[in-house]
Design goal:
With 432 residues, the protein is mainly beta. The protein is 15% helix and 53% strand. The chain has a single domain, classed as Porin (Beta Barrel). β7 and β8 form a beta hairpin.
Length: 432
């Protein structure tokens, strides 16, 4: 009976739950974050494959460049602002403040889930040589959702907000993934004798990724009862087991045009993509427990994929195989006011794919000013037309060695987020 319960529930979960992002590359440079993502026309050298591989063939490209290391960290939630959290750090929280926090989480909906997400990205090595680019990167993503009752229990204890005690539904769910990848890019430039000064380029990238881990967790109905005082836990987990959950192939296509002080770009990321999951390396687990004032007990049951029935195995396969990388269209423009002053803008539209993507569309703009050549300053603004991200960053250039840092605040409609990024690279000369 237990085995049927586990698999029936998890198969229902697989039918409805999104799979976390698996086909993303980690952005190789902090410069893009400092410009709020308005970077697809700016990217040159080792940065180009991530944004638009056609840029490898444009004028202004370096003969070579190396991204030694790049790292970014993101944390966001759907309810509370960074200012609220910062103001409460280390402070005593009175009941009035707790109630305000709970109201911000519920937003008028007693069943609204509190969401907390995070992402870590690292580019271990990225290189451009002539019109070629290649690199290695890794990215990890995790998301957690908990019921407002769980938040109330944490804030007020078992007496609840009203102070009289209540039963709490503390259900929630979560997902996460870890991916490493390799990419190789090439661009071919063209010139037109009838249009002197105009340079055109087309390019492509092939990306190969390994999904080292994938998990989907769902709470089947955990609760905290007041009378009698009992904690019940009932959690189901689907996860990969051996560090090789699947393999991902995808292709990016791009075109770019450089004319006078302008650069324009068009890129289709993950234009062709395929995911092959190693379904035999997944397992289903159910954790059940109960605790009261006298003690507690926890039991768990795990079923390997090979022990599921053929029909159940087929359902797991179909759900995993339906996971497609996000297909994104990017339109971009760059205007060079002077060698030390540039403006850029990007528009991104999500065209398909079932894997994780935070914004379905976005419009971003950025400006880079270099009061002195060794200290470029950057600022940017992005929106998905319901929320806004503000970004800023700077570079410190010591000859060919470039250190870039950026910080982005995501002022969401119902929450907040922060992205911090740092990168170190080597260039033979200046770049946009």
């Amino acid at each position: 009976m237990r085995k049927t319960r586990i698999t029936t529930f998890v198969l229902a979960l697989l039918t409805s739950a999104p799979v976390p992002g698996m086909a993303q590359l980690a952005a190789p440079s902090a410069r893009s974050f400092g410009l709020a993502g308005s970077f697809a026309a700016r990217a040159r050298g080792y940065e180009a494959p991530y944004w638009n591989p056609a840029n490898l063939g444009l004028p202004g490209r370096p003969g070579w460049s190396v991204g030694i290391v790049g790292a970014s960290a993101t944390i966001n939630n759907n309810s509370l602002s960074y200012g609220q959290i910062a103001d409460l750090y280390g402070e005593f929280i009175d009941d009035e403040t707790k109630s305000q926090l709970l109201e911000d989480i519920r937003r008028g909906d007693p069943d609204r889930l509190f969401q907390l997400g995070g992402e870590l990205g690292a580019s271990a090595l990225a290189v451009s040589i002539w019109r070629f680019g290649f690199g290695f990167s890794a990215i990890g993503v995790a998301d957690l959702q908990v019921s407002p009752d769980a938040a109330e229990l944490i804030l007020f204890g078992n007496v609840g907000e009203e102070g009289t005690g209540k039963d709490f539904d503390i259900a929630g769910n979560g997902d996460g993934s870890i991916l490493s990848n390799f990419y190789l890019s090439y661009a071919q430039p063209f010139s037109f004798s009838a249009l002197p000064g105009m340079e055109f380029s087309i390019g492509g990238s092939v990306k190969y990724g390994i999904a080292h881990a994938l998990f989907l967790m769902n709470d089947e109905g955990s609760s905290f009862a007041l009378s009698p005082l009992v904690l019940n836990a009932d959690v189901t987990l689907l996860k990969s087991t051996d560090g090789d959950a699947g393999r991902i192939w995808s292709f990016d296509l791009g075109a770019a045009l450089d004319w006078s002080n302008w650069t324009f770009g068009l890129a289709l990321q993950n234009a062709i993509a395929n995911v092959n999951w190693n379904v035999e390396d997944f397992e289903l687990s159910l954790f059940q427990g109960q605790a009261d004032v006298t003690g507690g007990e926890l039991t768990d049951t795990t079923i390997a994929y090979s022990d599921l029935s053929p029909a159940q195995q087929q359902q797991v396969q179909e759900r995993l195989e339906s996971a497609d990388p996000p297909k994104r269209l990017r339109l971009a423009a760059l205007y060079r006011i002077s060698p030390n002053w540039t403006l850029s803008a990007d528009y991104m539209e999500l065209l398909g794919g079932t894997l994780r993507e935070q914004w379905g569309r976005s419009l971003s703009a950025g400006v880079q000013v270099s009061p002195i050549s060794v200290l470029p300053l950057r600022a940017g603004l992005a929106t998905d037309f319901s929320q806004v991200a503000l970004a800023g960053g700077l570079g410190i250039y010591a000859g060919p060695v470039h250190l870039d840092f950026s910080l982005t605040t995501m002022t969401l409609a119902t929450g907040d987020g922060v992205i911090a990024s740092l990168s170190i690279s080597v260039w033979p000369g200046t770049h946009y």
